[in-house]
Specification:
Radius of gyration: 27 Å
Strand content: 25-35%
Strand order of the largest sheet: 14-13-10-11-12-15-23-21-20
Helix content: 25-40%
Oligomer: single chain
Length: 667
């Protein structure tokens, strides 16, 4: 077994590998760029080596610097994580020349399966079911348009060396093919240094289901069940689960056996994933094989009890798999939510900044629930524009799917993140979505269920009562503390009832409070039934935990001017608790009108201006491209929302802009 390994990655996956290496008694070496000098993975590793400037192309993607770090520290092997150099056969070969072990598959398998075009050719030759498409060289946009017409719309344009949704576009007509082809090539070149793309038939209403495989150097290969990854946004997975709520045992076995056959055909030696799309009749088609550890591997670990990183290390050290196919059983259900630094209320545009507060839920087992949080940040960490926007992967396990989803809802309610915008409200709302809970999924789920984007969830009558109750309980605790501080505790003979008005968003609700103290009070909303409220919450705690009428509640509390904000189950409302006479006056206060920004194109996220598509004085039609802004490795096309005339342009290609910076003005 290795004595020391280097992790050629950053963030949560570097921390994840270090965790298993430490359990195995293996010393670890981290690498870091200037932007990651104070990163968590640098702190938790036994050693750390600086490898260059923030851009990945000058640090994490420079193989020579990784090899130099190995030589300097005596690392015997390299775990690449995912992304960066994890699927570069040339990197694997370079390590081998230096006598350093690559903790992953051999170059042959990477070359055969790592390239989407070559992998499909290989799969066809191996009689693996594949999606109809064009795998040859595509000369230009006109050639792409001709190919798409022959295949039949809709089509998918994909980067050959791609991954993570980068360099991928769906086209429903010729115009979208031409635009998508150019965008896909540009993104592919920027992200992977390879602008080759291919085109294949897009299966309508598909499910994205993948099979985890594990092979060794002695010809043994097993599959560890499947993961359902159909909840995607812009072809990027958002929520995954294991097993799939759609597959039956017959289909699971057929997909698993086909995945194993493909892995054996390329002498696969490590953990890998064979991805399929599955139609409504459970017909499945090979998409690609990811010759690395997947982002969503924790859900497989939770339902199988197998540490995939440990297995990768043991296989790389030459050990035989200690597992046979009959040994692998799927136990319970696991769900993973990817926490991204992005604004769900602004079409999920990237967000950067410092984590002024980062309080994840407590990990571990409680009763029949397991909570796991894979992350590479802590309070005070900076989310930069140079890397992927994923902050953490929150996972829950339970005996049943419904219990795992409910556990995820509770965990998300307890996960406090401030300083950046993030997609937690969307994830929390998704957990209560009827279609998700029923398992009626497809890769078009988000586009179909949120066609106009995600908007704040509006509470129903019962939920308003819960939120108002929590607001009243918080105010009760505040009043109790003020009384203690001033020495003016309520006299024993004082009336045992307080009447308040809770302004919840734009609604006004009455709250009648009875009881001796804030820890155990009775609260009735709008004259309804009195709910006994029990909580040990203290002012300053970011999460209010307690029971309302016997129902367990965890809600995030943030101070606001004269009130608080309550975040719960994907809802976020401002609450102000007042005495009735104050509420009457508050209703008379004038409302501040929002500023009119309709005459400006504002940068929707911090990013780099790639191109400006118009000029001053130009008349533009709705839908035309105004500018392209790159942020966190993704190009975002900004289009005109209506017919207009460009009056003035204030930004140019190459400019780094802050959020809401003015790009151009309209007349």
């Amino acid at each position: 077994m290795f004595g020391k390994i280097l992790i050629a990655n950053r963030g949560e996956i570097a921390c994840r590998v270090i965790k298993t290496a430490r359990k195995m008694g293996i010393a670890t070496v981290a690498v870091y760029s200037d932007a990651d000098r104070d990163a968590v993975h640098v702190e938790v590793a036994d050693e750390a080596v600086h490898i260059g400037p923030p851009p990945a192309s000058q640090s994490y993607l420079v193989a020579d610097r990784i090899i130099e770090a190995c030589k300097a520290t005596g690392a015997e092997a390299v775990h690449p994580g995912y992304g960066f150099l994890s699927e570069r056969a040339s990197f694997c070969e370079a390590l081998e020349k230096e006598g350093i072990v690559f903790i992953g598959p051999k170059p042959k398998a990477i070359e055969a399966m790592g390239d989407k075009i070559e992998s499909k050719k290989f799969a066809n030759a191996a009689d693996v079911s594949t999606v109809p498409g064009w795998l040859g060289v595509i000369e230009d946009a006109s050639h792409a348009e001709k190919i798409a017409a022959e295949i039949g719309y809709p089509v998918m344009i994909k980067a050959s060396a791609g991954g993570g949704g980068k360099g991928m576009r769906i086209a429903w007509d010729a115009a979208e093919v031409r635009d998508g082809f150019e965008r896909a090539r540009s993104e592919a070149k920027s992200s992977f240094g390879d602008d080759r793309v291919f085109i294949e038939k897009f299966i309508v209403d598909p499910r994205h289901i993948e099979i985890q495989v594990l092979g060794d150097a002695h010809g043994n290969v097993v599959y560890l069940g499947e993961r359902e990854c159909s909840i995607q946004r812009r072809n990027q997975k958002v929520v995954e689960e294991a097993p799939s709520p759609f597959l039956d045992e017959k289909t699971r076995r057929a997909m698993g056996e086909q995945a194993v056959a493909l892995a054996k055909a390329v002498d696969y030696q490590s953990a890998g994933t064979v991805e399929f799309i599955v139609d409504k009749e459970r017909n499945f088609y090979f998409l690609e094989m990811n010759t690395r550890l997947q982002v969503e591997h924790p859900v497989t670990e939770l339902v199988t009890g197998i540490d995939l990183v440990e297995q990768m290390i043991r296989v790389a050290a030459g050990e035989k798999l200690a597992l046979r196919q009959d040994d692998i059983k799927l136990n319970g259900w696991a769900v993973e939510s990817r926490l991204y630094a992005e604004d769900p209320y602004r079409n999920f545009l990237p967000s950067i900044g410092r984590l002024t507060r980062y309080r994840p839920p407590e990990e571990g087992r409680s009763d029949q629930i397991v909570v796991r949080n894979d992350t590479g940040v802590t309070e005070g960490s900076e989310i930069s524009m140079f890397y992927d926007p994923m902050v953490a992967k929150l996972c829950t396990w339970a005996p049943t799917r419904a219990q795992a989803i409910d556990a995820m809802s509770d965990a998300l309610d307890s996960f406090v993140v401030d300083g950046i915008q993030h997609n937690m409200p969307f994830l929390a709302a998704l957990m209560r979505h009827p279609r998700w809970r029923e398992g009626r999924l497809s890769t078009g789920f988000i586009a179909e269920e949120y066609p106009d984007g995600f908007h704040p969830v509006a509470p129903d009558v019962d939920e308003k009562a819960v939120l108002a109750t929590v607001a009243a309980a918080v105010e009760l605790k505040r009043c109790e503390r003020l009384g203690k501080l001033s020495g003016r505790l309520r006299p024993a003979d004082a009336p045992d009832c307080r009447e308040w008005v809770v302004k919840l968003g734009a609604d006004y609700l009455t709250a009648s409070v009875t009881g001796d103290g804030a820890a155990d009070a009775g609260i009735a909303i709008n004259g309804g039934e009195v709910a006994v409220v029990a909580s040990r919450w203290r002012p300053g705690d970011p999460v209010w935990r307690g029971t309302v009428g016997g129902r367990e509640i965890a809600a995030q509390i943030r101070p606001r001017l004269n009130g608080i904000n309550i975040a719960w189950r994907g809802m976020s409302v401002d609450a102000l608790v007042m005495e009735p006479h104050v509420a009457r006056l508050e209703r008379l206060m004038p409302k501040k009108a929002a500023a009119d920004t309709s005459k400006f194109l504002l940068c929707p996220m911090p990013g780099l201006v790639v191109s400006i598509g118009v000029s001053a004085g130009q008349e533009v039609k709705a839908g035309e491209t105004l500018a392209v802004v790159e942020a966190m490795k993704m190009e975002n096309v900004l289009r005109a929302e209506r017919d207009l005339t460009v009056a003035r342009i204030t930004a140019k290609p190459g400019d780094s802009l802050a959020v809401d910076a003015v790009i151009m003005e309209f007349s």
